[in-house]
Amino acid sequence: MQLPEFFDAAPRIAVRDPLARFLGAAAEGVIEYRYADVVKLAGHSCPTVASAYLMTRAAFKALYPDTLPVRGEIRVELRDGRTAGTTGVVANVVSLLTGATNDTGFKGIGGRFDRRNLLHFDAGIDAQLRFTRVDSGAAAGVSARLDAVPFDPRVASLLPKCLNGVASNEETMLFQQLWQARVRTLLLDFADDPQVIVVRH
Questions:
Q1: How many domains does the chain have?
Q2: 76 and 54 in contact (C-beta within 8 Å)?
Q3: pLDDT of 99 strictly over 90
Q4: Domain extent at residue 40
Q5: How many Å separate Cα 21 from the centre of its chain?
């Protein structure tokens, strides 16, 4: 599988998963996620997928400043409805990284490790997402301001041509390059920019 080189240069996210430790799936339960992992989950790479990845990373840093985030012990609320816009895409990425699910997740073992009822939609919050630690109740709201990430105006004319199957090979390749260039810029240049990935405690 050949992926763009910048995927590997994107920030990585490490978590500690008590269930993974309990079942011997990972030493000490430590799991490292890369941007390529969420691309494989979503089936594509775009600013929405990248922003969901970065918003989760920012929330982890805010809620666990001195230790690894605990996967499976974080409640996530999304401001929008599950079928609104790209909410479903964001939810899938967040669910992968946090372990949080609504009613379809892992039921647990002996009353432990239950991942259900940790993911909620239509939340009355002023951020795009809110992450809450189950153990302490500490919370962080996170939003992505993608309008601050520059994009090449040629994308606007190339996209419909590619969608309608009338783009030349050269135009198709250019569209793909420009599309991923914006994702690269977001991941490598704006990952820690508080004006783009906005965190509220």
A1: 1
A2: no
A3: yes
A4: 11-146+196-200
A5: 23
